[in-house]
Amino acid sequence: MSRTSLAGSRNVGLDVTAHELYEVRLGRRRDPNQKAFKYSPPHRLTAAAIPTGTTTSLSHFRLASFSSKPSTRNPSRPVISQGINAGDVKKLQDAGIYTCNGLMMHTKKSLTGIKGLSEAKVDKICEAAEKLLGFMTGSDLLIKRKSVVRITTGSQALDELLGGGIETLCITEAFGEFRSGKTQLAHTLCVSTQLPLHMHGGNGKVAYIDTEGTFRPERIVPIAERFGMDANAVLDNIIYARAYTYEHQYNLLLGLAAKMAEEPFRLLIVDSVIALFRVDFSGRGELAERQQKLAQMLSRLTKIAEEFNVAVYITNQVIADPGGGMFITDPKKPAGGHVLAHAATIRLMLRKGKGEQRVCKIFDAPNLPEGEAISFYSKHVYCL
After folding, report:
1. How many CB atoms lie within 10 A of CB 262?
2. What DSSP string describes 133-185?
3. Statement: residue 76 has pLDDT above 50
């Protein structure tokens, strides 16, 4: 397997909705790409009827603002002509760069790797973007933070622990051993994200990248019914892709920018973020390369969260910790090392409790105190 570059084909996956996957699992169709039905808006709640053609990025200027033509997607913004031709803007968009913030998240070295962009053009484009972006005051940042959306987890205790729910603009990591509730929380978030804002939802769509093959669309149905939502409409608002290698996983993220620039996404789930890296890299001899590629993947997730104002929820595995101490009965620590520890904004540790109870603990967070929340789930409806 070639590991010289993470860039590859970007037209991969994420074109299948969870509803289509559900039809396949029920045996109603053989190919998930076979379009056998039309989208039907929900009837019980209008929350899942998410408007299309609007972007969820914050105050970030779109690349269209470089052009002298008015932007139909953001007509209220002043149009700034910086002398960047439409052809160069199109090349950037084909490379997955849709906003000025997204542009500044790439080095000039990586931008010159885009076909058709010379060093002189890259310097001119970056200079134009830098005129639109720069320092802001703490007051301005506080106002910007008011745009953060907190998505309910479906549990009042856990929401209180998280200060209202899963935050946008950052990465939330949940780690724990198998059967501790990480994937079940992901399924619940797929539904709660589509609730309206006044019901503590995100009023947006969901992108789900599955590296372990554990996503079950039929699991979404009872959760949607619990929230009083139309299950088919909820499934239609979830796009799903199965990743098989770490390169495939990264390429899915590159192609996702185009979808998020055109449609109102509010949540990205990667379940799990570390699994394919532990398969594709083996031994201490490849550990340094693995951590470097993992850092690139996490950096991309951070950029997506900040560029499009989405919540990124990733699950992580655990490994044995021989140095945990003799007084710890079952020492475990999250996989991924310091690279993953520094990239995740909020880290949640999930563990099994008594019976069907699951315990969630704030392991690390910049603005949340330490604490625990006890939850439970049943075989019918997951109730955190």
Report:
1. 14
2. -----HHHHHHHHTT--EE--S-HHHHHHTTSSEESSSEEEEE-STTSSHHHH
3. no
